[in-house]
Amino acid sequence: xxxxxxxxxxxxxxDQPKAVYAVAFACVISFMGIGxxxxxxxxxxxQLTATESQVTLLFTSIWxxxxxxxxSLGNISWRxxxxxxxxLMAVALVAMLFLLPDTPKPEHKSSLSAPLKxxxxxxxxxxxxAALLYNWGFFTMLx
Length: 143
What we know:
Layout lengths: L3 H4 L10 H20 L4 H6 L4 H8 L12 H5 L2 H21 L14 H5 L3 H21 L1
Helix pairs in contact: 2-6
């Protein structure tokens, strides 16, 4: 027979610290920024008569898609997604400032070589290589 205390102690996906939600929101918004802004880059290029290099500086990403693939948000106004993502990123920053706990001071200082020494752990090395290859592939395809 289960007592009420054991039945309510079942872990839940939604029973997380507020800091988890703040970081998850910031991650979603940062990738949403790439997804919203990258497709509309042909619009400012055309309206501002900018070169590809100038548009690249505007978004700090390489412009690779043809003008025919401009999104509907870009057809309304190419400035809107930039402003929208900026506001959402500001909200994410404020959420992280208030919801993340203070980082405790370490008991002892780490050396600059400590991250490289940590790569001697096989699991960490494997995950590091996988993350490097994933990010390289993702941003290569994005570019």
